[in-house]
Amino acid sequence: MDSTASACLLSSLPWNNSYYFILVVPSVISLILMYLILKSPLALRFRAIRDNPQRCEAVGIHVRRHQLYAIVIATSCWNRRGSLCRVGTVRIS
After folding, report:
1. pLDDT by residue (tens digit) across 59-87?
2. Between the CA of residue 7 and those of 12, 15, 18, 21, 86, what are the distances in Å?
3. 2-21 per-position pLDDT tens digit
4. Cβ proximity of 1 and 7 under 8 Å
5. Closest by alpha carbon to 46, among 72, 75, 62, 70?
């Protein structure tokens, strides 16, 4: 393989594009954060509230507070996703 062919091959790889890093790095960070949340005691409370909120209230878990936490986490993930989708589409002329 000569140098022009290898240069052409390298230019077609996605990591030469700056948008690639702008999209991949926050996505990987989001996936890691979601994994950590799913393996935490908070996720167990979310599942318990989903299954039986009355029992959780009787045990002493603040159901409304944890529902608010779930909404805040979900909307922050969707806001992050929406902003990342707009990165490559906005053009200033």
Report:
1. 999 999 999 999 998 888 777 777 666 66
2. 9, 14, 18, 20, 30
3. 455 544 544 555 555 666 67
4. no
5. 70
3-state secondary structure 48-68: HHHHCHHHHHHHCCCHHHHHH
Q: How many whole angstroms separate alpha carbon 73 and alpha carbon 67?
A: 10
Judge whether 41 and 58 are in contact, CB under 8 Å: no
In degrees to the nearest 10, what's the CA dihedral of 60, 65, 69, 72?
A: 170
Average pLDDT rounded to a whole number, residues 22-41: 86
- What are the sequence ranges of the domains in the chain? 17-85
> Is 49 exposed, middle or buried, given 0-12, 13-18 or 19+ CB atoms closer than 10 A?
buried
